[in-house]
Amino acid sequence: MHRAILIFNPSSGRSRARRAAIVARIAATFQSAGIQVESCATTHAGSAITQTQQAVASGFDTIIACGGDGTANEVLNGLMLSNGGASLGVVPLGSGNLLATDLLLPRNPEQAAQRLLQYKPRDLNPGVLVCQTKDGPQQRYFIVAAGIGSDAELMYRTAVEAKGRYGMYAYFLEMFRMAMRGRFHMFQVEWRDDQGGLHTARVASIMAIRAAKFPGVLQRVRLGSALIRNDYRLMMFQTDKVRHFMNYFASVATGMNWRVPQVELAYSTWFRCTPVPGQDPSVIHSEVDGELLGTLPVEVSIEPRTFKLLMPE
Fold this sequence. Notes:
Number of domains: 2
Helix content: 25-40%
Number of helices: 9
Mean pLDDT: 90
Radius of gyration: 19 Å
Shape: globular
Distance between the termini: 15 Å
């Protein structure tokens, strides 16, 4: 790391002034290590993608996403659209910090920046999701996870204001509200297992996980997934009943991992989601790294090209 740029969202969190002060201290941490540092505030949703492309074209060798998983995701997409070999680094600031947790980074931003100085770039294959939007097909790269169905509906229904006030616990509040409805929408999924076999099922949710460690109440969850694997750990909820979701959540959150028959786990590098006959595809949402995207049909795979992520050795 010789020349780095810090990309951050000035409007996320509770205080713009406080956010700017934190970013200034992060920059000072890197500067004290002899690194040339600049900072760049995002201007709107998706702007970090373009700003990353511009930074790579300007010769920055490291792009630091200062924020949550959504900021890191935008920087990743900017890197994948660039031809340079810049590395992605993460300093946690947002409400969702799954990637930072998996990278063993402290929650304190300055301590995380200090730790990042010890990390080395590693080539990884990102995930890639293609979904449908009102403007046509949309493609998005991701690092930590993708979700289709009730998981993405949770993102869709959780208000931005609630995330800013309650952080990741805003999702649990919305989960409780959704549970009061009693059932979730089902859809069709086809996936290829790690032996190349094709399978189909009806599910209310499918999640493609790459992270090995999770924050907060999910810290005991162990799924057998890892960023350095070139595949996903699929969680397929073959039920529309909320009690089965709650049962599985309790199983993994406590670390006891009892078997829930309605939830199937599998390793995979590809799957496709389509509506059941007669279903409106727009009722099934998709998300990557906590960022809401489009609706069915959805196809998820592993991108053959790589990007560089600063990781512990």
